[in-house]
Every structure is written in structure tokens, then in C-alpha cells.
Fold this protein.
Amino acid sequence: AAVSSGAAFSDGFLKKRSTRGQVGTGADILIAGFIVAGESPKQVLIRAIGPSLTAFGLTGALADPQLQLFNGNSLVATNDNWGGAAAISTAAAQAGAFPLSPTSLDSVILATLAPGSYTAQVSGVGGGTGVALVELYDTDALQPFSAQKVTNVATRGVVGTGQNQLIAGFVVSGNTSKKVLIRAVGPTLGAAPFNVGGVLADPILSLVRSDGLVIRENDSWEMGNDAALISEASAKVGAFPLAQKGKDAAILINLPPGSYSAQVTGPGTTTGVALIEVYEVP
């Protein structure tokens, strides 16, 4: 079903990226970064789901999420309560997103973005906390092998225990396998130049197929991997290097078309801030 390196250039894309995690306050909000590649503007749908998660049996959901979209330090768009807008409903249906009640307190942004780097930040209105899902959909009709696409997503959040782990979901489209780099970064975030406090000291990364099969696991990126290939892929996609002999985790793998989730936990009941990254590797 999957191999660790190699081969054919894929005609497909990474689609329907989402990350579920704990939304705290201050620096512990949920932050999803992504890159719009190519040379033309692209329409994207970004959703911050909180109260609608209860329909899936999730407890402790964020009651009233607020969504802000930034390009660098510039605020591009913001939303609190999506309001049932027809254009958003249409885009969500076309992208295959589950429907939201028009009266729900979930937040959504539909925007056409110029190529560049963006962050979608999810916080709780009035300092509220809880579990939320941040979703990113490329709503354009993508052509095979096109460079006009969203190439990665990286989400920073608090890794808790049980259902409060950090989970990134994504779909590989097309007809051939795609090389994907997945990283769970904790200790490197705590060191210069990032200096993030309260990081997860030893993230454990699990890659799970839609049927629940665990395809690959990693704890410490230089163990169980070809470290040179991980470093090469990281440089190729523009990701910062991981600390040598560090406890960050990584998986470089060719995945056939399908739905996957990358799950980040800590040993035992350990918790902390981590970054989950999913990159399409050319």
C-alpha cells in the first residue's frame, strides 16, 4: 500500500487538508499555515469547526470559534459565525465538505488568494477553549500536473491526551502515488530561532489510513528513516531543518490515492505544543 521513497511524479494533489486540535488562549490557539503555489490567484475555503463537531460524538468542542486569515502580519479576512452564506454552501458542497447548519457558530472564509504564504488562526470568542477542526479546501478545478495548487499545510496546536491529540487529515487525489513528507515537531520549536514555550518534548507520529490501518509510525526522525532523505525532502519543500539527534518525528512516504490522517501524541500522558506538517514533495 505504501513505500518509503521514490518514483513516479503524481498527477494528483493533496486535497481536503484538515487538522483537529485543542484551542487554548494566547499562544496556544490553533494556527494552520499553508502556501498557495504557482503564479495565479486561487480560491480557497477555510473553515473553523467547533460546535458542529458534537454531531460526530466529540466532547469538549470549542463552542464559538473565530477564524482569522493572515498574509504575513496583514489581516486578510476574518469571520465569526458563518451565517449560512449561499456561496460558502455551494463551495463546501463542491469540495466535498460536510454541511454546516446555517445557524451554527462555526466560522468560514471563502477567499481568492494571490500566491504566497498564509496562516489561518482559530481562537475562541471571549477566550473560550476546546477542541476545534480547521479545514483547508482548494475549490478550483485542478488540472493534472498543474503548479497552481496549495502545496502544504502546517498546523501548530496543543497536543493533549485521548481525543485531544493533534490530528491532520488529508486526501491524495489522482491515479498514481504521491510522495509526502509528514513531520511532528516539538523540541525544535523550543529552540532558537522559534523559542516556543511548553513544547511537546517527544512527539510520536502515526500515519493512519481511512480504514484505521496504521501504515507507519515514527518516534525520533533519524531512527527508522534514511535521515539524509528526510533532510533532502525538507530542504526541497522549504521546511526548516530538524535538530540532529532530536526527538522530533518524521515520515517520508509514497502514498497511493486515498484518505489519511497523521496523528501526534506524546509518550504516556505527556502534553505540549507541537507542529504537524504535511508537504507534497516534488
Q: What stands out?
A: Residues 1-11 have pLDDT under 50 and may be disordered. The first strand starts at residue 14 and ends at 23.
